Fold these 2 entries.
Entry 1:
Amino acid sequence: MIDRTANLLGVVGLAVADRIGDAAHDILRHGGETPAALIVIGYGSGPSNDQLRRVLGLSHPGSVRLVDRLVADGLVERREGRDKRTIALYLSERGMALREELLKGRLAAIRPLLTRLTDVEQEALAALLHKMLFSMETTASQRRTLCRLCDNRVCTDCPIPADELAET
């Protein structure tokens, strides 16, 4: 039974990931880690390029190219970091607007998968997902990576809070 459940969960996971990717591409016309970069930078804690690269799982050159493109597109601003040795990344007004669209588009892409469930079934699923996430043994870095596309405003009692980018 567990293999069947695992198999079904894997299919649902891929369906969700595909829907999120398609929605993000429709909004940004960019794939890869661009949507996640906007979400993570939009938490507003002013991550450095190195912090962003760790969350996104990118190489240093890959992260620099991504940030350069986001700056060139007018979505991200570089500002002086907290320790004056680093550069902090913040979203521009246009970047914040696109981030909002991404977050709304992500939820809109996933919602249809839940419409056939009753309210009681949705509550049960939410409780099970919360329990699964809570029981995962993860580091702070892994949690930030898992939640790199999350809208932390809709997740009450988050089982794996990940919006803080402080070094661990």
Entry 2:
Amino acid sequence: MLTTLRAVVTTITVLGAALTTPLTSYAAGDEGGVKCGRWNCEVEVDVPGQGSGGQSGGNGGTRGSGSSHGKGADADTRRDYEKVCTYKLSDPQPPTGSLDWEGHKPGDGAVYERSCSIGPDGHEDLWVTEMVWLANPPAQQTIDPAVLAQRAVDSMTLRGPDIASPRMDGKYTVGVPLWMWVNRSATTYGPNSASASAGGITVTAKATVSKIVWKMGDGSSVTCTGPGTPYTASNGMAKSPTCGHVYDKTSAGSSGGRYPLTATSTWTIDWQGGGETGQLTEIRQTNMTVSIGELQVVR
């Protein structure tokens, strides 16, 4: 069983065995070959598959590109996901006879460096650059600043609230005011900022938590527009001035004897760049449980 492999190489090894035959001995064709351009070489050869002394993938073989440059076997898949492409005239142009001309002569069109996003919304980790020949100067695709804004937000690693109170190991009492507050950091509360660029456009985004909705597990919810106020002993039995709740029944009847509690942050992101401004919203949640008991009177 033969398996076709294509790789972008400088030193070529196929299934652990180095190819000792000169590259020029492989003629381009359906049965395998080599193609070298300005940036790399593509080699396609038939090698023994599983059961013939070679190693292969779970379906008897694999096929793919060994580099993010050049035209790999996954080119058709990439076209399905292209969102943004930018072009840059290759300077200097490749010499006469270079494979980057794709059979054309210098002066007959030109060779460009094309960079395309192949992930949803132009994700920054999924950009591929390749050399292409074009008869006419390409029309630049419009870069959507909102796409870059989302990419900037994705790089911030925004998270749910870092709950400081109530504590997982804490025990709280029916009728006693519970003060809720969160620890503040760039990833859990903000402010957080990041930028993203493409096609000569840079967009900068700034994110902050605008509210936290606490679902207390007893059927009630509390919306707080700030991080909450830390409790101190001097506050006694007072209610929190910014973010609190009073339970009127114990958690004994809940699963595990604890109320399920969730704190959900709404991140508001303002962005600007490319002559535009806008606002995005991201939602993040933190889950925990809380134990509520009754005050025991000793007689």
